[in-house]
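#random but structural
TW: two for the price of one
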Amino acid sequence: MIKAVVRNGMIVPCDPLPDDWQEGTEVEVDIEIRRLSAENDIQGTDAWMDNVESVASQGDPADDLRLEAAIQAIRQREKELARKRLVGLDG
């Protein structure tokens, strides 16, 4: 069974579709409407965040440092390119 949600009036699958489904494949949709109460929604969000934090805590701190260094290098490069454009030195 494929699970999906309604977004902007369209049925959007939650997971990738099977490889053998080609464009134009006809499917039949059997609807089971599930509405979450605000309390269930909050509990679901809390559980999701607990999962995200659990995965994040398993990460290598060195990865965080490399990511931050890469972001800083990109920002510096973009600043330099902007300065060159402002003074007409970009070729």
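TW: number two ↓
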Amino acid sequence: MKRYILFVIISLNCLSIYAQQRNSHNLFWVRLTLADTLNSRLKWEVFLQKRTQNNYQGDPNVFHSNQFKSYWLWFHYSVNNKLKLSASPFGYFESYTLNNSNADADIPPIKEFRWAGRIEHETNGKYFNYSNRYNLEYRRRDLKNNDVYLPNWRIRYMVRLDKPIKNILSPTKTLIFTAYNEVFIQFGKAVRDNPNVFDQNRIYLGASYELIKNIKLNLGYIYGFQERNSGKEFDNINTYWAVLTLDNFISQLKKK
């Protein structure tokens, strides 16, 4: 099974080479994560996210225009120290087109409501921690900005490696280096007439570190490519990623 998944990932990465047209984009993605535990096994998280982008190929300003914003609630249940089940009862998103010219910045965003489920399994190895993550998303999107929300499904598979290293920045804290690859496949009514089933692929390299107690910073880079509805055009995307996580968000306030 793992060999099959690896073959699919490599095959999808090769698709970008044969696309008739490839557009280049630079993005900045920032996320504020608020998180806390409900009990020893159950945890909640809220993602407040925003992405900005340049306005045309070669534009160096990654803050030129909006590209995405969202509000996303998750609950995570730890079955044991290796297996985690997660569910999102609500997510709201606004996605702007990936700009190829200044005029594209005036196109209104696509509004979306999303529900999702996730299974994540992690294995702690001698040198790396290895995990597989499987997501199933149900999306309803106003694709034509006419208040008609069309449904579709999306499957996401991620393979991830984490390398914790101690005694680099602090004798008591751990710096974690991360690399992952995530593939997105879509199907359903909203995309039924599109020639593409493959949606996008993201390859990530980054690191995370706890700045002070319960406040963690994650910095990274994502190379992604996304297939447009025509099936003949790809967007190559360079994304600079920053995440600030506030753990025990409410518990700390209660203690004070």
